[in-house]
Amino acid sequence: MKILRTVNDLRQFVASLKADGHSVGLVPTMGALHAGHLSLVAQANSRGDKVVASLFVNPTQFNNSDDLATYPRKEDDDFRMLQEAGVSAVFAPAIEEIYPEGVGKASENCHFDLGPVAEVMEGRFRPGHFQGVALIVSKLLRFVEPCRAYFGEKDFQQIAVIRRMCETEKIPVEIVSCPIKRAESGLALSSRNSLLSPDQLEVAPEIHRALQSSVERSMQGASVAEIVADVTARLDSFDDLRVEYFEIVDGITLQPVADWDQTPYIVGCITVYCGSVRLIDNITYRRPDSHNC
Ligand code: PAF
Known about the structure:
By secondary structure, the protein is of the alpha/beta class. It is about 40% helix and about 20% strand.
């Protein structure tokens, strides 16, 4: 596996893969890898792509400086895991390689048209976050020009925003969304889980448990408003958990729904603070038969 630090080296390496007739799949990451990231690599391998992973803690998408400072970093472990997973190259640039104009300037000058999917939920609670995500993902897609790019469904809204960005920026790539990977406890795998204390690791799986039982309750006739109130109250009843938002939305437009029969694809998206660690998760309530994930 090649470790590439500059855009020039990345472009040259990708060109050699393409010259040899390979399709290239991009797996963008911020490192501190876990089985969720490796499932993206496995998905790309299974489609016959040569995999280029990126490992870059992108400062422009952090709207909270403590969150950026404490974000876990484990570069050597990450390289070893990517190599074992069969990745062809990892692009791990310095901040200056990506933002030579400075992070502040890059953020200031960044105005993607991300539409209504970026205005709700994470967009409301993390101003500027999706502009930063769009900025780094658009740069990576332009450097690599992959056939496909792979993203995990834990960040459900992020996938919708990236799809919109690719449309408006006219970036020709297939965005492949891959199912959430969970620990045995049900907790959605996340790099941030490594920041949880043993006690918090005990309570955090309550998030998935509450979502799962809410699906059953929705089948038994509970209304959207009842589910939102129940899940929020159940999770807020734990000392270490605080729900930031829980919204039940159309799976395509991400706008809130009021009734189960309003639209065929319905997803519940939640963000919960476990102590000071911000965790996100989601669950599907209704899915049209034809929807491909
Ligand atoms: O999902 C992530 O880890 C990040 O938002 C991404 C897509 C790698 C962009 O920095």
